[in-house]
Amino acid sequence: MIVVTLSKVPPSLRGDLTKWYQEIQTGVYVGNVSARVRDLLWERILKNIGTGEATMAYNAATELGYQFRTTRKDRQVVDYDGIPLMMHLKQQEVPVKHGFSSAAKFHKGMTMSHRRMTKYRKDVKPILSKPLVALDLETTGLDSTKAEIISIGAAKIMPDGQLLQFEKLIRSVDLVPSKITELTGITSEQLQKQGVELSLGLEALSDFVKDSVIIGYNLEFDEGFLTEALRKVGKTEFTNSTHDLMPIVKTTQEFLDNYRLTTVLEAYQIENLDPHHALSDAQATLSLAEKLIKNGNLVI
After folding, report:
1. For residues 46, 51, 52 and 54, what is the CA-based torsion angle, rounded to 10 degrees?
2. Domain boundaries, the chain
3. Does the record carry Nuclease as a key word (predicted)?
4. Beta strand 213-216 with 242-244: parallel, antiparallel or unpaired?
5. Phi, psi at 240, each rounded to 5°
6. Who has the most CB within 10 Å: 3, 131, 216, 294?
7. What letter does residue 196 receive in the DSSP assignment?
8. Strands (E), 81-187
9. Dist. CA 27–CA 6, nearest whole Å
10. What are the residues whose beta carbons fall under 8 Å from the beta carbon of 81, sequence distance 6 or more?
């Protein structure tokens, strides 16, 4: 007999496990398979568990007649004279992380982005026939017909590996909602002092992008806002070739907890120093594209 308990795992993993085990209660699976199949299924769980947890108990030639395994960070399986025990680990206290003002967060994000962006990336080989631009927008809401663009960030890699970056704050007619300020660090005062008019920002973006291939994560969102913004200022839409990375990731990573950019970057071991900051998100998205190209999942 084998018993597996799962918590906070992707729904796809739960469904996959029911091919061999019976789910008798939410997250609790029982079954009777060979040791080889059991071990292969455990490896499958470890590979696709995401940020969840799993514990397995099974028949074994021990004094108690069973053995168990776990992925829990606060537990460790130990052998005490042939008796399997679950040892509780003392959790290390996490120091309090002091916050910063919205303006400080924004300034910190810009500083980190500029430091990280070197003129040439030595570890990137020329694999492109055309420049590749990752695009990200920060907006005051989700509806492109009502909300406004407040920040544009873009990161470009040239066929020779040279890296370029673009960032503009956009003056907004409306006040920036407090939730957006909390998320991005951008305030209405900053936009009035440091921002440019929407038409100038879009013109500068067009000059930066030129004939590059445009990529993004959930690019449909950004394209919707760009199209609406270009219409407002009487400019023509971009005609560049585009690639949305989200559908590609969903095809290649079927067992993630979710497909938010933060989760995906963690799965691909990509660091984003300042999430919800347009330039930082664009740089991280460019790194994601490079990995997908290297893995053969994205062809430009």
Report:
1. 30
2. 2-88, 132-295
3. yes
4. parallel
5. -65, 155
6. 216
7. B
8. 83-88, 132-139, 149-157, 163-169
9. 5
10. none
Task: Look at the chain and count its residues.
Answer: 300
The alpha carbons of the chain give a radius of gyration, in whole angstroms, of 24
State the pLDDT at residue 114: 52
Q: pLDDT tens digits for 112-160? A: 555 555 444 445 444 688 999 999 999 999 999 999 999 999 999 999 9
Question: Per the structure block, which two tokens stand in for 157?
Answer: 């890699």
CA distance 109 to 103: 10
E-strand ranges in 188-281 read 213-216, 242-244
pLDDT tens column, 20-63? 899 898 889 999 988 888 998 988 888 888 888 999 999 888 77
Helix axes 219-232, 198-209, angle to 10 degrees: 120
Query: Residue 12, Cβ neighbours under 10 Å: how many?
Result: 14
Burial class (CB in 10 A: 0-12, 13-18, 19+), 47: exposed
CATH 3.30.450.40 is held by the domain 132-295: no
Looking at domain 2-88, its CATH class is: alpha beta
